[in-house]
Design a protein that fits this description.
2 copies of one chain form a homodimer. By secondary structure, chain A is α/β, with parallel strands linked by helices. Chain A is 36% helix and 17% strand. In chain A, strand 3 and strand 4 form a beta hairpin. In chain A, helix 2 packs parallel to helix 5 and helix 6 crosses helix 8.
Chain lengths: 332, 332
């Protein structure tokens, strides 16, 4: 059963023109024609046409995107969990106590169904504990080195190839229309920032997420470092997403996209602003090309946020029907 | 005795052209001709000329500025301390316990010399305690209402008129050359963000600073709020400035400007990056047009950071000699 509701705020004033940037072409070629694509193009046209009732001044064009399951594949494990499992395995000889201590023990089991249920909180705990003492530069290097060799168990691709082509187009389309695109993720900023600019075109200062505490130190003269401490500074999921937006952006988004219950508060917060608003949820409906899951999934559960989406004006994207391709490599 | 040293990194490759933005004019008309101005113009030319040895790609053009004493006047009291003193006075009838409890008691004394010694930490404590329970929107309104009526004790001007014209020009000059300008301040983000965009052209998401904890709540259906809690999330002074840069920007500045010992670590961190770097300190040398203070000042003490500036390649701006005007209203 397909359920869908759409952005509110009146009829598009400019039809399908989609603003100046793609006056001649299709800004979202990997989206199938239909109401989902149309609602996005209409929203951008309405909010960026000076004189339109829904025009949004450029500095207020803030768009926030969840990462896992919204911009890239989060099954069968959050990518940062796959990273952490590999890290814990490679470090356990030096930390034998991890074999019996949770959540490290769980990370070592290799049991995907159990690992899948490891929350962002447990993940962050392992992340900070296993990387305490490293400098932020060292950690970035470790993340990039891992991404260079790690492969997704089903697609056998680098994880950064498993980003959603339609969402890359949406990010670029918004930026071409002078929206500032942010990631607001339950995952740790330290894991996303090293590659988010290359992969999504989103610079580190626009990546908001969970974070560990860091400490400034000067171990050798004139060579200061920022060192990771074994302490979580904040989580960034559920209500924490809005708190993260307040702390790091300080302005309410006019557009927000998520895919799970962890994004519900961000969508609520976005919806409650005045003027035109766009809220979207990616619904994973394509078991053939990607994965199909929602209400009962331990990863990316979409349940309450879906009910809210139906009740309110939130676009629910049906990946199977709305997306012509899922991954960039399908275009080759 | 004037002490000054200059940015390192070789001779300017384009002389005084200063990049494309002001090819025909002077990008810094309120700066007197001389080595300080020249070093800035040379740095911008070198880092923005494609093919130059010191060229910096646009996404890496991060410039961070302290606020108090670097962008606006911090004497005889940090502006946020003047705000907090007024707030505590207006609220003390409802909080009689403040009359005897530090640091509230101190705030109520009206003794400027004692108030001046109140650190950013004490300030933030009062700030969060006296404003706990307010929503972030309510607090912004209170700040703007106060700024509309409060006047500086000496200049009798609104505080937001007491920003430094030469620094406004520098911010605009950097932005015209595709630098992204950030505030990295010991003061609280909640106090700066409501007006930083109008006054400095710096949007809220580029204002980094101390902050209180906020909590997301939904007191009435579909009307979520972010509420301020009576808890400090982090300070942003000394080493905290670098930690704040790591947390909020995630990329090392190529240019940083401060005016006091609280900025030393930010300058060190900036200096330790590879490639061309620019570090600057505003030295308050003009008792007639503004204030003159450095090594022994309880507010904006410039002592260790000055020694470091002399030892290293950091521009020390002499306000009296280097600035043609101090405040924008002098131009009228």
């Amino acid at each position: 059963m397909r359920r869908r509701s759409f952005v509110s705020g009146g009829v598009a004033m400019l039809g399908t023109s989609g603003g100046a940037a793609w006056a001649q072409g299709d800004p979202l070629p990997s989206w199938n024609a239909g109401p989902a694509k149309q609602s996005i193009v209409d929203f951008v046209a309405r909010t960026t046409t000076f004189g339109s009732r829904d025009w949004v001044p450029v500095p207020e064009r803030i768009a926030t995107f969840d990462n896992d399951g919204t911009l890239w594949t989060e099954q069968p494990l959050y990518v940062q969990n796959a990273f952490i499992v590999d890290r814990v395995r490679s470090m356990v000889a030096r930390h034998p106590e991890w074999r019996t201590r949770e959540p490290f023990r769980l990370a070592l089991t290799g049991d995907h169904s159990q690992l899948a249920s490891m929350g962002e909180k447990e993940l962050l705990e392992i992340m900070v504990a296993s990387h305490a003492g490293l400098t932020t530069d060292e950690f970035s290097r470790i993340v990039l080195d891992w991404l260079a060799v790690a492969r997704h168990p089903r697609f056998k691709s680098p994880y950064t190839d498993l980003v959603y082509q339609p969402m890359l187009e949406l990010l670029a389309y918004l930026r071409a229309n002078q929206f500032k695109t942010f990631i607001v993720s339950g995952g740790p900023i330290e894991f996303m920032r090293p590659w988010a600019e290359r992969v999504y075109g989103i610079p580190p200062e626009q990546v908001v997420g969970a974070a560990g505490v860091t400490k400034y130190a000067m171990p050798t003269p004139d060579r200061p470092v920022l060192r990771m401490e074994a302490q979580v500074a904040f989580n960034d999921i559920f209500a924490g997403k809005v708190e993260g937006i307040g702390r790091s952006i300080g302005r309410r988004p006019v557009l927000a996209f998520g895919n799970s219950d962890g994004d519900q508060q961000m969508l609520e917060w976005t919806a409650a602003g005045s003027g035109a608003r766009f809220m979207g949820l990616v619904h994973h409906t394509d078991a053939v090309r990607e994965y199909a899951y929602d209400r009962n999934s331990p990863i990316g559960q979409l349940d309450k946020a879906w009910d809210e989406a139906i009740r309110r004006s939130c676009l629910v994207v049906d990946m199977k029907h709305d997306w012509k391709v899922i991954y960039p490599f399908e275009l080759k």
